[in-house]
Amino acid sequence: MSAYIIRRLLLVIPTLWAIITINFFVIQIAPGGPVEQAVAQLEGHSSGIMERFTGGGQEVKAIEPGENGSSYRGSRGLDPEVVEAIKKQFGFDKPLLERYADMLKNYATFNFGESLFKGGNVIDLIIDRLPVSVSLGLWSTLIIYFVSIPLGIAKAIKHGSRFDVWSSAIIIIGYAIPGFLFAILLIIFFASGNYFSWFPLRGLVSSDFDQLTWYQQILDYFWHLTLPILAMVIGGFATLSMLTKNSFLDEINKQYVVTARAKGLDERSILYRHVFRNAMLIIIAGFPAAFISIFFTGAMLIEVMFSLEGIGLLGFESTIQRDYPVVFSSLYIMTLLGLLLNIISDLTYTFVDPRIDFEAR
Fold first, then answer.
1. Per-position b or e across 244-280, b if 16+ CB within 10 A of its CB
2. What domains, with CATH codes, occur in the chain?
3. Could you report the average pLDDT of every consecutive run of 10 residues in the chain (361 residues)?
């Protein structure tokens, strides 16, 4: 098994390199880079912002459109020296391939540099936002699993019954409702004050969180998480419930279950001592992948709507601002975590069922 793990870990390197490389060159050709963003800020704000690039001792001269010959749209009216200072500030005075080589070298040592617009170290920004995204992803995944698995088993046992039909209808309706739309409804009814004001509108904790006792802090934490998590899980039950149901139905119809019944075992023993382990193999092994999926793809709009400072919101804001260090760093870390969790998913198969041997393949 160790040889298999080593091979998978070695495959992470070229996969990560390919993803980062493709995204680097695609983003470079996209219009409206960080230099243009900074130039637009300089033209739309006071000279105090210009001092960031001129050092406060250089006079910023206004020039006629087209006089400076700059290739950046929106740079008309700025001194060419200011534009060059901006390019140097962001590292765009270097050739494209040199910037690419520097990025690979820095990322290999987990040196992500400084944010172009937010200020501060990129890794510190990500670490500060991580608790929010982990909270949303972890609790949403656990709730979906703890509800969907018993529901799927019950649907398999009562296949074709009224319970099966009505529960399928309910989870399909929930699956059809977009999470952000359900979040709007939750805010209107339970947080806006138009109907009720039971839950907070923003933040992960209250402003006086540090003054609360430990149990009050726990209650305050979950009080703030209630609406965002409800909005995230509304569409998450359908897939896992149906997967659990179909997996159990497939196992129940196999020969070893018929043999167990012929030996006189009761249905409960057959279900939980024989069927459960085989039927749950694909479901349990998929937990890491399910967590990373909810963690990275399901939280951005929810974070925006509930003003939760998470990685999803950070990535969105950085993309709008063309804050390349934050964009590439977030992509790098997300991709690396996703690849590692895929390996963990494979290892979970062998933990659930030791008969599976990836190394022998």
1. bbebbbebbeeeebeebeeeeeeeeebbeebbeebbb
2. 33-111 (no CATH), 123-352 (1.10.3720.10)
3. 81 89 79 66 50 46 42 52 66 78 86 78 86 83 88 88 90 84 88 81 81 87 89 83 86 82 80 77 70 64 82 80 81 82 76 66 57
